[in-house]
Amino acid sequence: MDLISITQKRFESAITLSVIVPYFNESQVLPSLHSRLTAVLDSLPERCEIIYVDDGSSDDSLQVVEGFQSSSSIVRSLSLSRNFGKESAMSAGLEYSRGEAVVLIDADLQDPPELIAQMLEKWREGYDVVNMQRRERHGETWFKRQSAAIYYRLLNTLVKSDIPENVGDFRLLSRRVVDHINRMPERNRYMKGIFSWPGFKQCILQFDRDARFSGETKWNYFKLLGLAMDGITSFSIRPLRLATIFGSVIAAGSLFYGLFIVAQTMFWGNAVTGYPSLMVVQLAIGGIQLLCIGLLGEYIGRIFIEAKQRPLFLVQSVKEKPAVMIFDQMEKRA
Ligand code: UDP
Ligand code: MG
């Protein structure tokens, strides 16, 4: 091994904390985020890196991030070739991360960077996943809060796993969990499920989620509904089971009703009545059948997407200081 790669190796094993920030058109917030984040990281004894993942922003966010690199050598800037969605951006960050502990944080300052110190504390105690649970949802509408509550209830009954309620993507993962997640092959990155699937020692810290610092959320209700659907269908086949049960109940009911009608006709004769009941039964069964076909379609769609095996994201550029330089600077700081 030559000197550079030895230093590189030494450097890689020296990184303790990676902070991953996926962002999409956040140029207004990024400077405040960066100054708060570096203030926190500078106060930590750990060697850190910040991985900014540009999810195909169309504003000047990427230039803003690359500007940070002149004053801070711990900044690595990753840029995806287009907008792949936050899940893919996070996956990219996880793949490039080198730290023994990895923190995922939103760019919009809804997740306070100051909490990273507490999260690391838990990690040092031996936890592999530190979930950050929202105590209050500031700046969110009543409707959003209610729909979120109902959704979690539904998700946890259907998926029957331990997806903690009101925990977003803000969390700390240990290296071994990150390695397992990086090996998970699915294209459908429903991160809430993916983060809790590996298990290991998990804990929950509560925090107050702030309102967005500026800009708009990129989620609308239509997208959220899609995400909700993804969550259920990518982590559970219970809806299919429910459809089977539902179908069996209806089939059994129809059988008895059918027998009843036959008996009624044989013993009492049948004047042509029953148009309303006929219509109701017809429509109800038709509706249920369509629903179940739709449900099947959801799963088949997912099989189709998985079968294509396309990459999760494409990286357009990586800008980072050579490892040796960062190492030097860190040595000086330490
Ligand atoms: N984000 C991203 N790609 C997208 C949409 C969002 O990387 O396609 C980032 C966004 O810049 C922010 C984080 O994901 O850092 C959370 O997004 P947002 O605030 O819109 O979601 P919310 O907080 O409302 O769940
Ligand atoms: Mg946000």
TrEMBL record:
Cellular localization per UniProt: Cell membrane
Membrane topology: Multi-pass membrane protein
Domain Glycosyltransferase 2-like: 18-180
Transferase found in the keyword field: yes
Membrane-traversing stretches: 242-267, 279-300
GO cellular component: plasma membrane
Keyword vocabulary terms for this entry: Cell membrane, Glycosyltransferase, Membrane, Transferase, Transmembrane, Transmembrane helix
Pfam family, one: Glycos_transf_2
CDD domains assigned: DPM1_like_bac (cd04187)
GO molecular function, one term: glycosyltransferase activity
Domain of life (superkingdom): Bacteria
Chief location: membrane
Family named by the database record: Belongs to the glycosyltransferase 2 family. GtrB subfamily.
Protein name: Glycosyltransferase family 2 protein
Organism: Vibrio marinisediminis
